[in-house]
Every structure is written in C-alpha cells, then in structure tokens.
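I'd like us to work through together how a protein chain folds, taking it slowly. To get us started, please write out a protein record for me. Go ahead whenever you are ready, and we will take it from there:
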Amino acid sequence: MKKNILLLTILVLSGLFSSAQQLPKNWYNLDLQKDSVYGVSTNKAYETILKGKKATTIIVAVIDDGTDVDHPDLAGQIWTNTKEIPGNKIDDDNNGYPDDIHGWNYLGNADEDIVLENMEVTRIVRKYQSVFADSNNIKSQPEKYQEYLNAKSIYDKKLAEYTKTDERLNKMLNFIEAMNKKYAKDSLSVQEVSGYYVTDSVLIKMKERMVTLMDKGTTYPSYVSELKRGYKNNKDHLDYHMNIAYDARKVIHDDYENINDKSYGNNHVKSPDGDHGTHVSGIIGAVRGNEMGTDGVASNVQLMILRVVPNGDERDKDIALAIRYAADNGARIINMSFGKPVPYNKKAVDDAVKYAASKNVLLVHAAGNESLNLDVDKRYPNPNYLGEKRNARKNWLDVGANAADGNPGVFSNYGKKYVDLFAPGVKITSTLPNNGYGAKNGTSMASPVAAGVAALILSYYPQMTAEQLKKVLVKSVVRPQINVKKPGTKDVMVKYKDLCITAGIINAYEAAKLAERKYGK
C-alpha cells in the first residue's frame, strides 16, 4: 500500500529488511521443494499440469495509482478498448468515458491530474469540525458525530506521530550535515561516523543504529539517501495528507456526494506518479520468458488500468466507479492494493462490490502494512457489507504478505478470521516507470501475486465462476509446517493458522492440480 512508504522506509533504516540471502529476482514464481523458497510454484504449474493446454485471455483490472503502459515488459499486456477511436475526444461506446483506450483516471479533470491528496480522516475532520462545534448538531446526528470523533482521534494521533518524526529526521539530517562539514566530504567511513561526538540522547541512538547498519554493509550514501527519502515522505504527510487547509478535490469539479456524477477524470492512465501501479501490473502480467527484468505470474492476461490511488487516501466514490467500470468492461479479476482505516461512503463501495459479484468478478485485496490483527482492527474497503449480515466473501480474497523463508512480512496485517491467505510480498522485483525494474515490499505486492495466480488458473479453466475460483485458490494453499514470527514482533512465534483463514500460502501448481481435477475436460 502506497501510503505506508514511510513505515517501510523506517523498517529499512532499522535493519529489519537487511538480509545476507541473495534471492532470485523471480523468487515468487519458484517452488518450495525445488528452489527452497516459499514462492507460488508458477513455473512448476506451467511446466507440468498446464503444459500443452489451451488458454484464453483474462482481463485483470488494476485499480491503483496508474501504470506505465509503454513499458516494454507490459506494452503487449495492456487492455485496449476496441470500441473507442483513439484521440477523437468522443465517447464512441457511450459508456460515459471518452477515449478510455486503456482504462480511466479518476484523479483529475480533462486536463489536470491529482497526485497528492489528504488522508480520509483529514477530509472527515475538515467536513465536520465546524458542524459539531454546535452542540445541537451533536444531538441530532449522533452516528455522524461518532464517526467524526473516531476520525479526529486517528487524525490527532497521526499528526503527532508525523510531527515527532519530522523533528527526529530533521535532527538527524542536521547531524549528517555537520559531519560532512567537519570531514569536508559527503561519504564517510563507519569509523568516522562512530568517532563523531554527540551528546543528544536521540542522536546517540540514531548514530548507533547508523553504525550498526554500516557495519552490516550499508553504505553511508545509501543510508543518507534513504533518510532523505523518508524525510520527504514525512513532509508529504504534514503538508498534504494531514493538512486540513489542502483540498485537492477542487481540481475535479464533480458533485462528490453524487455517485451518479461520473463525468470527470481523463484517460491519463500512465499518470505522473505510477511507480506503485506499474510494479503491481508487472507482478501480475509482465511478459514471461522474454529475459527482460522478471516474469509476471500470468501469461494470458490483459491489464485494464484504473487510476484512483493518489499519494494519500483514495476516495470511496472513485473506488466504486472504478469497480463498476471494470465489471462493465469485461474484467474477471480486480486487484486492489490500497486501504485506509476509515471509510467515507462505504455503502457506495459495497454496492459496487455487489455489482461486481453479479458480473462474476473476483476482487483481490491487499490486507495492509501496519502489522495489525484485522480480526480486531478494521480496514477499508472490506468485504463486510454495511448494516448487513451477509458479506462479499464468496468473490473477495484478502491477502497477507510472506517472505521467501516462509515468515510473514514484519509489516503484514493478518487475521485468522479475516485474511484469506498469504502470498509473496517481500523483496518482490517487478516493473517500474520509464523502462525500469526494482524491488518493493508490502501486501501491495502480495495481492497482485494472488491476482496473477487467479488469472492464471482462470485462463485455463474459464468456465469457473468467481466463487468456484476462490474455492480452488483457498483449498489448494501450501500450509507451512513451521513456527513463524508474528508480524510486528521480534520473537513471538505462531503458526499460520493464527494468521489467516486457510493457514497457508497461495500456490499456482496446487491450484492448477485441483482445478484440473474438478474442471478439466
């Protein structure tokens, strides 16, 4: 999840992601028995059960921050709306989206794009703080008041955290500037850093951590680069995400309260800030076997690009319209690598999820990166319908992240009654904008691995319904018979049955074997 980049940066700086193990770039496609990593056995599935079988093309919608559709490892995999005439600025297929050639961007107007946005709690506080300054409104709108109090509590806590982090990182950067000035150079040795005298208790701890990481092989320039990146990201939190005075939605000019007002956005699916979505898209469907970068999980896919995720919290209206767009335009699988702690219009999203279910679509969602137990702590969107006992579990898959050694990612959310299964999400190499490649960590990476497996299986057994597909995926998981570290802890050991419903990791080979037995001709 894109917004948690500060958390992941801090984990990198603290050494929690450092490892001497050198992993293959495509480890998530590899097999436990053959390769000694907890991948999803993609290659094994292709080379055995699926070898020689005919496959159909599956449309997978990537609801994210945009994708570099010109990337050479993705260009041939991008969905094209053949009912539209490119560039004529006319809605040729009368679906409400002119020139939607590869999908749609909901973050903007005809000419402008939004990159930075508020967090949802900020938007709720901005909307209701003046309303509930009047005690009469508290009495007349008790439910909304509780929503406001919840959002305000989260807002105040987050603002305090980001303010404190800003002070710490600023202090550390000033410390580094002072060291550079003393030694008259920009790259220092571990001895020089260790020998620099400080008295501030915070700086002493940060210097000790820096020395430890340098002893383990982290270079001074790379440490400083990560620190500066974390500082900038934290500034974005303060200046945009938590800034009540900043309202990016004014650019769009839509009636935000009206879900039927969809005449906004543009076809700029590449977006000015699409590294997250490009990475997600590559995990699902980067061209296999072309010896470029890495291989996606699924070969026979077309990726429909729907941009709703800014640098900040996505908006429920945009999510709902994107889900409906995907369902209406032939997507069988939707990947959603995003989430937030509070909703604004959950009913709109719920209705869209129900609509997708009626169109036989499987929704695959990242569990999140806060090391939370989702049996206790709520995240949105989620498959539990507002005010209803029924839910979307039959066509919804929530995914946690595991590392190559089988341990869950230290950041991964979990829940033995909520998260369906785990998938590789640590040190995942995939496509990046401008022909690039790189590794990322997060359930944002685990979700497209699972979506890729789903697309792979469905492409060979397209007669399956979304419900049947999910059943195959959850019944065929590989269940690690090891004790693993509970996310967010250093030494609390648990079993996978304590982390997710299936007690396992998704597996393409086992899923193909089960699908062949149940649905093979």
User: Anything to note?
Assistant: The longest helix spans residues 142-183. The chain has two domains: 26-115+264-519, 120-241.
